[in-house]
């Protein structure tokens, strides 16, 4: 692991982010779009690749655990499922669809010149700051209403993941025979979603090995918001407990490693913030290389309002739940985290509700 080498850790996550930004851009791999298309148009083609991502990551995580390359288990950023996980997941799902992008989709689309996603990005920052005002309420909900004392569906028993991988493989082969893996595309440099899914899963395994836990990104948004608020209202920010607390704190070989949303350089800077900057850079560079970078005009008022409101909601929901779709779908589900299962279930219901709202109010 690189936890004791912060600068190496920063450049590692920055490099992973650059690769991710390019992959997300070239595959247009937007998880919000996957759920929106499924609920609005009954198009499940992209969701298949997401299932492949989860199953691939599950296989690799367990192989790495058996080999001893994964040292921190459970990951220090994961916790027990609570009522807050359900509420946060639902709000996140609604916001994700309204914003037309999740926390990662917003970054890679914004980086190629999409002003709608820039508006959503501003909404995410705003939602993170709004959450800080009510943090203590949600913190008590997280600790007082825990759903179960177990963190994982399977701790050391590999039967469940083996069964899931075997069952999923049957469907994967069926979809291959039906020709459902490859999507028709004419864009230069396009990467098929199933290929992107495998690359993302592999990168997440490397992140877990070298950073100590799977990918996450939403605390980075809150940290950016904290830096901005600290410029204009430093006294108010100092009075908010959310920005003084650590979201992760571990001791490795006598060295205490911690970090949070506050405006300071810490482990979140070297992991989540570096990853976010890398995703923006990777998408921007790729769009320039493919000569596709273009600053689109401002969207219609309804679409702009939907993007901003969605950004605020998904950020607020992510802070309530303690993570986003990147953390819980790409990392927690493959580890069979109950917190991840609860979040994704609530998020799916929220995404369905968000699709209904969009259809009724914004289309």
UniProtKB/TrEMBL annotation:
<keyword id="KW-0472">Membrane</keyword>
<feature type="transmembrane region" description="Helical">
    <location>
        <begin position="328"/>
        <end position="352"/>
    </location>
</feature>
<feature type="transmembrane region" description="Helical">
    <location>
        <begin position="46"/>
        <end position="64"/>
    </location>
</feature>
<dbReference type="Pfam" id="PF04143">
    <property type="entry name" value="Sulf_transp"/>
</dbReference>
<keyword id="KW-0813">Transport</keyword>
<keyword id="KW-1133">Transmembrane helix</keyword>
<comment type="similarity">
    <text>Belongs to the TsuA/YedE (TC 9.B.102) family.</text>
</comment>
<dbReference type="InterPro" id="IPR007272">
    <property type="entry name" value="Sulf_transp_TsuA/YedE"/>
</dbReference>
<feature type="transmembrane region" description="Helical">
    <location>
        <begin position="6"/>
        <end position="25"/>
    </location>
</feature>
<keyword id="KW-1003">Cell membrane</keyword>
<protein>
    <submittedName>
        <fullName>Uncharacterized protein</fullName>
    </submittedName>
</protein>
<feature type="transmembrane region" description="Helical">
    <location>
        <begin position="196"/>
        <end position="213"/>
    </location>
</feature>
<feature type="transmembrane region" description="Helical">
    <location>
        <begin position="273"/>
        <end position="291"/>
    </location>
</feature>
<keyword id="KW-0997">Cell inner membrane</keyword>
<feature type="transmembrane region" description="Helical">
    <location>
        <begin position="303"/>
        <end position="322"/>
    </location>
</feature>
<feature type="transmembrane region" description="Helical">
    <location>
        <begin position="158"/>
        <end position="175"/>
    </location>
</feature>
<feature type="transmembrane region" description="Helical">
    <location>
        <begin position="84"/>
        <end position="108"/>
    </location>
</feature>
<dbReference type="GO" id="GO:0005886">
    <property type="term" value="C:plasma membrane"/>
</dbReference>
<feature type="transmembrane region" description="Helical">
    <location>
        <begin position="115"/>
        <end position="138"/>
    </location>
</feature>
<keyword id="KW-0812">Transmembrane</keyword>
């Amino acid at each position: 692991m690189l936890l004791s080498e912060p600068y190496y850790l920063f450049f590692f996550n920055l490099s992973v982010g650059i690769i991710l930004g390019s992959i997300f851009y070239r595959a247009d791999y937007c998880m919000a779009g996957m759920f929106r298309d499924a609920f609005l148009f009954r198009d499940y083609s992209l969701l298949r690749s997401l299932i492949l991502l989860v199953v691939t990551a599950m296989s690799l995580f367990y192989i790495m655990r058996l080999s001893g390359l994964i040292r921190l288990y459970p990951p220090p950023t994961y916790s027990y499922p609570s009522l807050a996980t359900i509420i946060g997941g639902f709000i996140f799902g609604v916001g994700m669809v309204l914003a037309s992008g999740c926390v990662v989709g917003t970054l890679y689309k914004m980086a190629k010149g999409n002003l709608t996603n820039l508006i959503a990005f501003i909404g995410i920052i705003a939602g993170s700051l709004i959450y800080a005002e009510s943090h203590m309420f949600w913190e008590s909900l997280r600790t007082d209403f825990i759903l179960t004392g177990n963190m994982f569906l399977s701790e050391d028993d590999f039967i469940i993941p083996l069964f899931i991988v075997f069952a999923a493989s049957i469907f994967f082969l069926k979809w291959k025979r039906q020709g459902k893996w490859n999507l028709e595309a004419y864009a230069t440099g396009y990467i098929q979603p199933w290929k992107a899914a495998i690359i993302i899963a592999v990168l997440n395994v490397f992140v877990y090995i070298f950073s100590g836990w799977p990918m996450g990104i939403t605390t980075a948004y809150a940290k950016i918001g904290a830096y901005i608020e600290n410029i204009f209202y430093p006294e108010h920010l100092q009075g908010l407990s959310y920005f003084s607390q650590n979201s992760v704190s571990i001791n490795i070989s006598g060295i205490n490693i911690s970090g949070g949303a506050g405006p300071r350089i810490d482990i979140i800077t070297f992991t989540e913030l570096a990853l976010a900057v890398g995703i923006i850079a990777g998408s921007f560079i790729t769009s320039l290389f493919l000569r596709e970078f273009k600053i689109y005009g401002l969207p219609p008022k309804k679409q702009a309002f939907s993007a901003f409101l969605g950004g605020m909601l998904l950020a607020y929901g992510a802070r309530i739940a303690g993570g986003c779709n990147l953390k819980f779908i790409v990392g927690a589900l493959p580890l069979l985290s109950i917190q991840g299962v609860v979040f994704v279930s609530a998020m799916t219901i929220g995404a369905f509700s968000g699709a209904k709202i969009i259809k009724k109010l914004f289309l």
